[in-house]
Amino acid sequence: MKKLILLGVVFILLAGVIGGFAYFEYVMKPEIIKKAILGKVQPTSEVVTEVATAESWRRAVPAIGTLSAVQGIDVAPETPGIVQSIGFTSGEEIEAGTLLIELGDGTEQASLKAALAQLRNSQISLKRQRELLGRGNTSRSNYDTAIASRDSDAAEVERIRALISEKSILAPFSGRLGVRKVDLGQYVSAGTVLVSLQQLDPIYVDFPIPEQHLDLIKVGDDVELRVDAFPKGKFSGKVTTIDSRVEQSTRNILVRAELANPAKQLLPGMFVNVRVLESKAQDVVAVRRTAITYSLIGDTIFVAKPDAPDAKKDKKEAAADAKSEPPKYTLEQRRVTLGVQRGDQIVVVDGVKAGEHVVTGGQNKIFNGQRVALSKVPPLKAPTERPKP
Known about the structure:
This protein has four helices and 22 strands.
């Protein structure tokens, strides 16, 4: 009997110990850990921000255009002949009236001598008929025939002289020559291209714009150009002409601008990116493009708003806290309305005010209402020159 009582007491004690251990392990211990975690000061995340800036932007209409010379021709002869002399070198800058190429004119010179002889004979006959008519020894019809013969021979002389002048090919305007396409002694027919001649300063750029943008462009507007051949160069000009009709197949209208080209870097036929700038600037709020989170339900941006000081603390305590740790901010996610884009900057029409701190990266790791500190690491800047593969 005593053994049973002893075993019962031992069992009760053992059950109490096991129950107490289980209660501590599964009830008290999780509560202690929870209180410790909640009571611990959580580290503050840092975010990279930039200040939204107030700027004056001129709205721009982008386009793709092609450069063309103010005057540009392919020099070609009007008459056939053999190249007798060449008065230029390829790529040379020449003045108007420069002798470029001279074709052989031996046959025409011989014909001119024969025509001059015939003209002298006609003039003598006309003089004789005039004297006879004065004495009444010839008819009026003979005199008229002599005049017609003299005029015909004079016209023939002028025709041959015109042919001879066409053998000397002169530059019609000043400009830069291209690559020579003929050699000495070569026979060329009428219309054969001898060399190109282009006037390079100033130079035109022609570009189409959609008809719905026609109200944004007018004659005299500033134009900015960028050329792939000179990525670091920036060229500017002004709109000079807007075409008088819209192309029905594309619904575009052709616009022409003129720009100075004193260094003659720009050449006809070059591909260019064009921006036509609005004449009047507008005040806008601009942020970096990376600050925008794009989605199908709307574009958003995170704004870091400074926390209000604790009203329970006096000024000395608040100043001491400010020195010991950086000021805290609370993130606020806002919907924004976006405007035009320029480089890595974009206009925020509504949703952000100038001077506010906007988060420019890592938006997928933050959330609305999160307390953060502003990072002192400067944001990454876009390279001035686009890297090439």
